[in-house]
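Quick one, tokens below:
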């Protein structure tokens, strides 16, 4: 069978499960609005698919081939047609001990795999983390875990911009202080990437004082970070900086033509800037300029199709909430979703995107290839 997807705007979990049901179902991935937590989504999907691994995260708006939704749930099922085996581990303590949690996830996956090392050509990890923890520490620890040398892609769970409580779920358990790692051993090829529609402006600046554990930059070029950022934007001072300035003028680390965006979100104590991702002292950053988000999405799909000549069987999208807010403001939500038409896909808007590291203002995506005829 093919990869199957569904969406539901309300509480019809039985209908949603019926839409993604298929023979030899191996895994279910789903994203949901936090107000639906009381519906016992984990229990409902567990009763429908007791033999499958089931992982999910709370969202602020979701994507799917049937269309985007602001509220509700989107879900995908994968079968033995694509998946040889799947393994899932979850744990708590994301806020207090993210590194320890990552080590427990790695240990749990390794035990389920019988100590076999992951094959990066066949295994891929899907990581869902509490959106209010330092997800970069979890990703960093997983990338150095023995036996897990494979791509790990995913997103940080979100709420409705309350930044109060985000949820991840694995099989019958859910947590507001946890992380989930689903490892798929695929029998089909796959493609992954991180995609940014911003480009580096000329010039660069040096972060000279930072507090990574708080995601705060205190100084840029030896001056108070907020004042220096305001100067770069042509403002008279830090008190003129608004949330719109932050969303429209992120900074980034440019390595050749590749940009790793870092999104500021608040002025701290009048002089520092808090980001959605940690930045360390000694990092050279550039102001970024906005490009075409739809052209960027189409480019991502074209790259996947070149790598997957037999076609794309399905896709998982992890899209930054700042990009989502930009698309809402520019009235491009429907057009962005439509760019992925022609393939079964789901996704959600995150508080951080994962792919080898923790990203901001980025789309990370996993494209699963179709089986090649012998």
């Amino acid at each position: 069978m093919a990869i199957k997807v569904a969406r539901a705007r309300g509480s019809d979990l039985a209908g949603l499960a019926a839409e993604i049901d298929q023979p030899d179902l191996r895994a279910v991935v789903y994203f949901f609005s936090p107000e639906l937590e009381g519906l016992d989504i984990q229990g409902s999907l567990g009763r429908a698919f007791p033999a499958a691994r089931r992982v999910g995260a709370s969202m602020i708006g979701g994507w799917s081939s049937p269309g985007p939704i602001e509220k509700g749930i989107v879900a995908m099922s994968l079968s033995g047609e694509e998946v040889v085996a799947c393994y899932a581990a979850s744990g708590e303590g994301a806020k207090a001990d993210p590194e320890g949690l990552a080590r427990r996830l790695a240990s749990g996956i390794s035990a389920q795999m019988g100590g076999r090392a992951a094959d990066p050509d066949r295994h891929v990890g899907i990581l869902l983390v509490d959106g209010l923890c330092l997800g970069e520490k979890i990703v960093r620890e997983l990338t150095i875990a023995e036996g897990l040398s494979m791509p790990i892609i995913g997103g940080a769970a979100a709420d409705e911009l309350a930044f109060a409580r985000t949820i991840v779920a694995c099989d019958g358990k859910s947590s507001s202080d946890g992380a989930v790692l689903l490892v798929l051993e695929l029998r089909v090829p796959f493609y992954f990437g991180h995609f940014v529609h911003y480009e580096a402006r000329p010039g660069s600046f040096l972060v000279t004082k930072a507090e990574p554990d708080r995601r705060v930059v205190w100084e840029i070029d030896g001056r108070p970070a907020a004042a220096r950022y305001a100067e770069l934007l042509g403002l008279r001072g830090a008190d003129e900086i608004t949330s719109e300035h932050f969303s429209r003028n992120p900074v980034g680390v440019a390595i050749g033509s590749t940009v790793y965006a870092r999104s500021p979100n608040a002025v701290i104590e009048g002089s520092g800037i808090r980001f959605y991702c940690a930045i360390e002292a000694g990092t050279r950053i550039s102001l970024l300029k906005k490009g075409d988000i739809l052209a960027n999405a189409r480019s991502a799909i074209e790259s996947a199709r070149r790598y997957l000549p037999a076609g794309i069987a399905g896709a998982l999208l992890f899209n930054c909430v700042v990009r989502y807010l930009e698309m809402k403001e520019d009235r491009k939500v429907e057009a962005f979703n439509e760019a992925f038409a022609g393939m079964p896909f789901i996704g959600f808007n995150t508080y951080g995107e994962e792919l080898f590291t923790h990203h901001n203002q980025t789309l990370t995506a996993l494209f699963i290839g179709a089986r090649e005829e012998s």
